[in-house]
UniProtKB/TrEMBL annotation:
Keywords: FAD, Flavoprotein, NAD, Oxidoreductase, Transit peptide. It catalyses: a quinone + NADH + H(+) = a quinol + NAD(+); a ubiquinone + NADH + H(+) = a ubiquinol + NAD(+). It holds the Pfam family NDH2_C. It comes from Gomphillus americanus. This is NADH:ubiquinone reductase (non-electrogenic). One of its GO terms (molecular function) is NADH dehydrogenase (quinone) (non-electrogenic) activity. GO terms for cellular component: mitochondrion. Its EC number is 1.6.5.9. PANTHER family: EXTERNAL NADH-UBIQUINONE OXIDOREDUCTASE 1, MITOCHONDRIAL-RELATED (PTHR43706:SF47), NADH DEHYDROGENASE (PTHR43706). InterPro entries: FAD/NAD-bd_sf, FAD/NAD-binding_dom, NDH-2, NDH2-like_C. Belongs to the NADH dehydrogenase family.
Length: 480
């Protein structure tokens, strides 16, 4: 595995396929595509794939972030033909000129840090950014949970709050504020993070730093009447009752309107329907209110008249072609194909495109061979004609088989979420039915399911070691 075989070099006669992003969608495409058919170029500011389902566990040190990262270089060097990778952000897709403008946004820049990459085919898999709905103060004071850097910042901030709360002569009121951990957004990101944070407190912080035990508190704020809207009613109730047992407060029907450095302002609706504005002081604020469009996607949409009514992402057809475009596809969180923005959808879309591109290349290859054979047949001697005729028939049969790629169909395997205290909830599709469960067995299922889905054996081993390490020695409470 350390020394894969020599790769075929790129060939200027082949079409150039540019893939933007190294997330769930793009990596799933890269894994399955036959790179010998195209000159593949990958552009992404992140030179690794991130296994996001275990990212909430990195915020508390249950899992170390490197255990869920897979270097993109490792993925690419195992492909049959050479794939070029540029660590850069695509800042503009110029559809008319068929080029992408790329910028090196890293700390070290060479003499050239911005350039253009021409494409024949383009796959947009840039994901989404964090939604803030323009609420003042969110970007300045809140922390997000999307990337490795976010998880690291949260981990640092938790320990900073804990140590500052333990500072000599700290007032009770200030201690209480610093130890109030507020999570905004009751979708799966917010719920999983709240569960992980409460575990950190209950299993480690409380015993390591007993001084904070009376004041540490986690509150989850959600605008809708309940958390986890995509799960069944029974699992929503189970999550809410588990949070109650764990002493996590859930404040539903509460819409955050403003954020300052020390408190949030939220409008809550009481049982009588009356609205009241309240100030909620916090030490840590994690903002998990879903996805918003990236600027590069917004800009592409503005170039295509057929996208003018699309608001949440690039509208695509059933073959994931961006509507109004030719040879441009979109997958994952930046595409709107009527499915939820999940890893499951993105990876199935990526795998579909790989099949489609492999079959397009095969079709082209067979058509070229057929054209060649037809020409040979025309000038061939009569005794050679039958052989050529049979060969043509075989190729036509192969062509019919290859062409049978239907439109993209998503197969939902179910939803899983960790809710803390070694419990999880699962809505799983099972033999054409639905199976809902919550509790410790579901947690074991959650663990084994995510372990098996990790990108590589190396990732699986590292995650297992992290789980064992944190359960034996406790999580590391040092602030980096
Ligand atoms: P991403 O995986 O976000 O990848 C986008 C890629 O594009 C990244 O490599 C990024 O660096 C790159 N990029 C960004 N901007 C540019 C640019 N301008 N130019 C080039 N490249 C760019 N889903 C599930 O199904 N199950 C789960 O358990 C689950 N857990 C989650 C937990 C967390 C904490 C989070 C945040 C999400 C979770 N999701 C889960 C959702 C899932 O991660 C996303 O739906 C999935 O990552 C979408 O894949 P994607 O390829 O569209 O985007
Ligand atoms: P989300 O969109 O699922 O949930 C965001 C929540 O924030 C919503 O319930 C919304 O009502 C609330 N909200 C919005 N503005 C608010 C405000 N001002 N004040 C209070 N609440 C507000 O977002 P999330 O959790 O980040 O998930 C994004 C996507 O990733 C989803 O498709 C989700 O399914 C997927 N995901 C899946 C996971 C899993 O399957 N375990 C884990 C994490 C994410």
């Amino acid at each position: 595995m350390r020394t894969p075989s020599e790769q075929i070099e790129q060939d200027p006669r082949k079409k150039t396929l540019v893939i933007l992003g190294t997330g769930w969608g793009s990596v799933s495409l890269l894994k399955k595509i036959d790179t010998e058919n195209y000159n593949v170029i990958v552009v992404s500011p992140r030179n690794y794939f991130l296994f996001t389902p275990l990212l909430p566990s990195c915020t508390t040190g249950t899992i170390e972030h490197r255990s869920i990262m897979e270097p993109i270089r490792n993925i690419l060097r195992h492909k049959g033909a050479q794939v070029k990778y540029y660590e850069a952000e695509c800042t503009k897709i110029d559809y008319a000129r068929k080029v992408v403008v790329i910028n090196d946004e890293s700390e070290i820049k060479g003499a050239t840090s911005a350039t253009e990459v021409p494409f024949d085919m383009l796959v947009v898999g840039v994901g989404a950014e964090n939604a803030t709905f323009g609420i003042p103060g969110v970007r300045e004071h809140g922390l997000f949970l999307k990337e490795v850097g976010d998880a690291q910042a949260i981990r640092k901030r938790i320990m900073d709050c804990v140590e500052t709360a333990s500072f000599k002569d700290q007032s009770d009121e200030e201690r209480k504020r610093l130890l109030h951990m507020v999570v905004v957004g009751g979708g799966p990101t917010g719920v999983e993070f709240a569960g992980e944070l409460q575990d950190f407190f209950a299993q480690d912080l409380k015993t390591w730093i007993p001084d904070i035990a009376d004041h540490f508190h986690v509150t989850l704020v959600e605008a809708l009447p309940n958390v986890l809207p995509m799960f069944s009613k029974q699992l929503i109730d189970y999550t809410e009752s588990t949070f109650k047992e764990e002493s996590i407060t859930i404040q539903t029907k509460t819409m955050v309107k403003n954020v300052t450095d020390k408190y949030i302002e939220a409008e809550s609706t009481g049982p009588d329907g009356k609205k009241k504005l309240e100030q909620i002081p916090y030490g840590l604020l994690v903002w998990a209110t879903g996805n918003a469009l990236r600027p590069v996607v917004k800009d592409l949409m503005s170039q295509i008249p057929a996208q003018k009514d699309s608001r949440r992402g690039l509208a695509v057809n059933e073959y994931l072609v961006v509507k109004g475009c030719e040879n441009v596809w979109a997958i994952g969180d930046c595409a709107i194909a009527n499915y939820a923005p999940t890893a499951q959808v993105a990876s199935q879309e990526g795998a579909f495109l790989a099949r489609l591109f492999n079959s397009l290349a095969k079709t082209q290859e067979i058509n070229e061979k057929l054209a060649e054979l037809s020409e040979t047949q025309a000038v061939a001697k009569p005794e050679e004609r039958t052989e050529i005729f049979n060969e043509i028939k075989d190729l036509q049969k192969r062509l019919r088989r290859v062409k049978q790629i239907g439109p993209f169909e998503y197969s939902h395997q179910g939803s899983l979420a960790y809710i803390g205290s070694e419990k999880a909830v699962a809505d799983v599709s099972w033999l054409r039915g639905n199976f809902a469960s919550g509790g410790t067995w579901t947690y074991l299922f959650w663990k084994s399911a995510y372990l098996s889905m990790c990108f590589s054996t190396r990732n699986r081993i590292l995650v297992c070691v992290d789980w064992i390490k944190s359960s034996i020695f406790g999580r590391d409470v040092s602030r980096e």
